[in-house]
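A quick aside before the break. I want you to see a complete sequence-to-structure record at least once, exactly as it would be stored in a machine-readable document. Don't worry about memorizing anything.
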Amino acid sequence: MRIAVLGVGVIGSIYAAKLAAAGHSVTLVARGPRKRQLESSGLQLEDALSGATLHLQLPVSDQLPRDAELVVVAIRNAQVDAALPQLRQSPSATQILLMLNGPLQVGRLGEALGPERVFFGFAGAGGVHDGPSVRYTAVRAQPTTFGPVRDQPETKPRAFAALFADAGFATSVVADMEAWLLTHAVLITALCGALYRNGGVSKALAADKSGLNDLIAGLREGLRVVTSLGFTVSPLKLRLLPRLPAPLVRLALSRQLASDFAAFAIDGHANAAPEDMQDLARDCRTMIARSGRAAPVLLRLCDEVEAFRRR
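That is the input. The structure line, written in tokens, reads:
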């Protein structure tokens, strides 16, 4: 398949390299210093767990190629409006897969680009820049996720899941991607609020009983907000959270957060890209206001996210 990847930061780099290694014709769409770096040094990945490396020299352009069958968009939520003119000008037959952290943009972007060709997914991988290379890990606990929105059939999301699975990613298809994105915004805002209160260090949060309690309480409040907005919490394991005893949830979270994996997969991205987390915190505030529900703990965690500055 002819694939263009718009936005070649950490996430775009991971997917572009793995899709190209799987035999697809991939063009990188980048500008400025990143474009020059990709042209001179190529696309470089290092698996943080196995140490395996991948170095590819792929074509780089500052414009979307007209012959792309699929455009994978991996940019920040705040960069979407600047990318819309390019995406609108792409041929009507081109499928657009938005891998965004912007749950409140789903309806607007579908209308702007055409609901018949715009689809939504979320990355199941993360990492950090290490010079020209990207050190990454695929997060099997959170597979690369796809799903329909607003009465779309599941046909295309399932095809995307198969495409990415063939490139080596764990994938999942959910019934409603918009509901999944809203739930994820709540999860990440609550987690990062508690994390930033502990200096952005997962192991410190793992030992902070008060912080873990706020994380659980804020998450439960947020899940009620999602339900009040008319969506079903997704995935199922989070739907079950309010029924579980808080001490049991706290123990499970403490064990996960104390791991070396959390130190890389959670702390790395949360501390490298606080602006992304602040976007989600603002979305959570909007969701709370629209729902009319009280969510005092989650709002305090939003405050923590918005006050955090890159270390």
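Two observations worth writing down. The first helix runs from residue 10 to 21. The mean pLDDT is 93. We'll return to this after the break.
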